[in-house]
Write a structure and sequence with these properties.
heterodimer, A: Rossmann fold, 5-stranded parallel sheet, 6 helices, disordered C terminus, B: 514 residues, alpha+beta, Cytochrome-c3 Hydrogenase, chain B, 2 domains, 5-stranded mixed sheet, globular, binds iron/sulfur cluster
Chain lengths: 173, 514
Amino acid sequence: MFDILSRIRRTGRLSETGPQAGKATASDPLQSKLHQTFGRALCIRQVDAGSCNGCELEIQALGNPYYNLEGSGIHFVASPRHADLLLVTGPVSVNMEEALKRTYQAMPKPKWVIAVGDCGACGGIFGTSYASRGSVGNIIPVDAMVNGCPPSPTALMQAIVDVTTGMPQSGQG
Amino acid sequence: MNLDTLEQEAVRVPSNVAVSCITFGAESWLQAADAMQQAGAVLLTLWGSDDRDRDGHFRIHAAYLMPQRLWIIGHAMPSDSPVYPSLSRLFPVADRLQRAVRDLLGIHADGGDDRPWLRHGGWPASVFPLRRDVDPAHAHAVQSSAYPFVHVSGDGVHEIPVGPVHAGTIEPGHFRFSLVGEKVLRLEQRLGYAHKGVAKRFESMRLDDGHRLAARACGDSTVAFSWAYCSALESMNATVVPPRAVTLRALALELERVANHLGDLGALGNDAGLAFGQTQFSALKERLLRQNAEVFGQRYLFDLVVPGGVAKDPPERALVALSSELSDIKREVNELRVLYTNHAGLQDRLQGTGYVDPAQARTMGALGLVARACGLARDLRVDLPWPPYDKFLPTVAICADGDVAARLQVRFDEVLESLRLCSQWLGDMPAGAICVDLPDTEPGQQGIGMIEGWRGPVLAAVESGVNEGIRRCHIHDPSWQNWLLLERAVLDNIVADFPLINKSFNLSYSGHDG
Ligand code: SF4
């Protein structure tokens, strides 16, 4: 136990300052801005609709101590019924089409959808075919896209902040 | 039939490892399978090809992995009766492979499980998308029907269905547990949700572009898959990759292994209730990814391996910085290993959990780190070393215990061994070119690439088409074999331990689904 505590002390705080919400509120910490909007933490549900797992790795990285997404009042939830925001990766495979639609429908309104990665944004290298429906926007309404293969954690954070604090949400499904 | 007879008749296939190929009629095809099974080979993969345009036949190819050689046994079928002998009696993994071949190409095994595997209703049962006369762009409306899971009945037996959408940020798949109380009686997996038509997509790509798709078959193993694809292509062209590029590829492959293992070491701690482990290891992984960005210009090394070499020549100072960061990471991993080993609560969760016995692992054809954690010394880098591993043999990490703790130990050993290899290469990096041009490729050439990725051996089998196109490309991820073993590993465990056991395997959905 002592070893663990001393290691925690030596590791110290690694969290970096994340992106801020909009220019006007640049001095506001992200957390308080989110709190103003939601009155609580922002809840995200992630769905892999057929990705190669590269985008998942970068979304998982958001939880590491450097990006410390939870520390900004953003957390991932296990049920779409608890979620404000849906992060969708991958070209939508035909085998995931129904599960993606159902997840989207299960979310309460208001809700946002971000299509993640080149695949989510436009189908990427897989395109559309007998097995792939291409971009997420072909299946459910999308509010924002983050390009990249995979997009960096910083780009993902920026998109999450922009879409939930500034831009109007349109996905009324 | 014995292997000596086979060896006399076989032909060599261009590859970075030793590959022999032979074609048989139905009866001998099955006898050869029997001989392979007797000799302890792993049925690595099956793939079919539509050669009706060439000679009116479909073909099925079975790849068997032996310690010193990969065997490919082919069999041709007339187009009006595309049926071949089922291998499911000999190799448990054959069932799923045969189902996948049938779903995509409409050629059938004459026995075994015949439920659909990759086709979930996204295209009609009468459409076989990999056939050459099927338009790749043609899409169909989804018509799903209930999947006939095997039903377990009895006093107090109940079912828990999980997925395809999971609670965490992970890939899609479905698990059907049959339980008594907390105890798992049976697990049946249903996979294929991430199937996005990779094999068909290859056929619309150029040979010199296919590595980009191979790199995205399974994003966490991007170096392994793109290297396997490029090796297949380079072997068929007899291209020699410059030494600097070879060493940089191996450096990237080992960094990929270290990054994934670090992630898993943290996640295993977390799933066993030690969030401290997750914090520490995910921070180390992040440091490594940032080094990747400094050295290769990106965190995940997509498209670094290209036909003829590598795409990026790292500046000397970045390599020096990488070297010192890696020794730091090594020190920290050693420290954390002591903490994990001495943590009684953690060890209590890991030891004896998700046990697989070696005999079972052998029967199921276990591969990669899962096999090594059951005491099976299987590692392509040592069994069939290709450059630069022929000059830098790693020590194979082995642990015979077969439980979650063993899979953790193997990961620790492999991280340290990979770091040792990296530091050797960084200390003596060859100078010179990083890429050579490939000559034009004649149609109908074949090449095989095999690389030991962080999960185990990955394979790319490439055949060239006209105008520098890809006629057929089949890729294989070792998860196919290990998924089957996971179904066995959870039996008699409590269902609450499934996430931990699953994480200790950490198998690929996308690489499997294709
Ligand atoms: S965008 Fe790139 S990393 Fe993300 S799923 Fe697509 S291929 Fe994989």
